[in-house]
Amino acid sequence: MQNPAAAPSRFDEKLLDLSTSIDQFEGYAYAHALSIALIADAVAKQFNLAPHDRFFMQQAALVHDIGEMIMARDYIKAHRRLTDDERIDLQRHPVIGEQETARRGFSRGVQLLVRWHHEWWNGSGYPDAIESSQIPLAARILRLADSYSSITVDRPWRPAMGAIEAKQFLIDWAGIEFDPEVVRAFLSVDESVYSPSAPVEAEAIQTEHEAR
Question: What is the average per-residue pLDDT within 183-194?
Answer without folding.
Answer: 89
